[in-house]
Amino acid sequence: MPRTEIKESEDFLKSLGFPTLDVHETFSHFDFSRPSRRVLLIGPMGSGKTEYAARIWKDAEVARLKSDEIREKCTTGTRDRRNVFFIRSKLDRSRFSDYPEDVMPYRSGHIECKDNIAYISDSFDFENAVESHREVGTFIVDEASFFDERLIYVARNYALEEGCIFIFPTLILNFRREFFNSTSRLILDMATDVIPITAYCEHRDCMQDAFYTYRYYSVDGLECPALYFDPLIIVGGDRVKESSLEPNYASRCEKHHYLPGKEYSFFTLKPLGREASNGSLGALERELGYLKENIEKSELYKSLKRRYKNSPDYDIYLSSLKVSFIAEKALAFLFSEQSLLSEDILRKVAADLHLNTSYLERILSDNHHPIQFDQMVLL
Q: Which residues pair with 75 in a beta bridge?
């Protein structure tokens, strides 16, 4: 709400005899009459992005009951923007496995979409969904950052050429507090509207606004922050897990967002990867061997002790070393994100150190670098 309108509201309330109040911006119903919008809903996991999208769905149900005059204002060609279609990733089905596939679930409820929902793998599936539903004018694309960049260009073209509205409830920042990927940057560049949504920091001793998604593992009742080089994408459900293998997520403020290992990743791990790429595998294999078998001899352990020795949260940072497959994660980071290791070097190091190739296959596949190892080590 513009400041002038807020001032008018304040004056009106004062004229009615109300005491001086803080007047905040109202939660408005969604405007389906404005074509070609690309609306970005941003916030950490658990902030209510999909729930906000569900409000838009409910607004559309009311808007469709309006007159023909309203219908004309909300329609471009065959595209009626009061008709809403929900799009999700096929990878996302496991998050809400208790719900049928025609339902749009979120943490505090769900919306029955009937035929107005599709699960897609990539931008080509997305384009087919938009083209196949020519009566629809508003598309909600959940977690669009998980798709390829082309999806955003397709959405922009349909918005500009046919007046469609696209709503993107999505993470822009990953658990590292960095842009999730190039797709998330592109969404931000092409958005016409940005609606930030926050949540309470989920730390038990904090009531601040949370802007960040925090990843952690729960091991023997301890909170174990994910190391910086933890895989960017880990496919899993929304339930809270007691596991050194599967992470949990929480919304956190800056103070309580713990991210150990960033300095190590760039000052130690990446240089070791460069040496290995030039044929000198010894130092990298020695460090990964320590990460696998004797963590206290590793440079990672020494780095964390040095970095956080005076921190009141020292124990939390050091608990990050209790999670499983740290060596596998470090190797995958160098291969799939830093592009420092060839596939042959990856295979050789994994074989030399008897790393868990089943786990490596899984995380590399989830992060769009699928590799099949000859010898499988079962989890």
A: 80
